[in-house]
Amino acid sequence: MKKFSLVFLLLMLLFSTSPAFANPYQKANPAFRQVKVDDPKIQFQIKGEAKVWEATLHYRVKAGKKIVAQGFKTASKGAPQWGKFSLDLTLTKSKVKGKELTLELFEESQANGSEIHKLTIPLKTIDNKKYQNQAFRYVTGSTQYIYHVKGEARVWEATYHYEVSDGHNILKKGYGTASNGAPKWGTFQQTIKIPKKKMRVNGSIILELYEESMKDGSRKNRYFQRLDQFPWK
């Protein structure tokens, strides 16, 4: 019986995430409908110190050879002092999947505006190392994945619950509020952030939406949706 239930759940996930099929079980769910997941995002939160002219540092993010983000930031102090800085870099999966991501930090020459003191950092290791050169030091960061889910819910007191897992471990759980409570349908939007260190290198990340029974707190009207698939290809 357990084997049958597992196969049934896998079939539900397959149909619910394939663009060529509509899952009849998910469509018939009395509590959740029109559930969609936006393009997943990866966010790098970078911090460090810089010793740059007029406290202005420039950055560039590349996916392979393609530039996917660039700009400038102001450190807390300008050269010859060291000043603190931070960067929040958020990139969508569709732009960067299958590519090696690198961050370039540099300053512009006072003489001719050319790039000098460039520091190149592979973002896949930013969580575990610190990088430096003559203009930048103690540069490190943290990485997380961001998922934005939206849809409609018809749940008691407008409260829905969610849980994200990789099939073995619970990665995130919480609850949210729809715009209306049952018996009306209400819209909902939920942003879910999961640190990279919790993620598996290979496999699916599954979202479960459900409501809690008024009688005993058990889960009911469970709705499953694939959030992501690793590795990004």
UniProtKB/TrEMBL annotation:
Coiled coil: none annotated. Transmembrane segments: none annotated. InterPro entries: Gmad2_Ig-like_dom. The keyword Signal applies. Residues 43-114, 148-218 form the Bacterial spore germination immunoglobulin-like domain. It comes from the Bacteria. Keywords: Signal. Residues 1-22 form the signal peptide. This is Immunoglobulin-like domain of spore germination. It comes from Seinonella peptonophila.
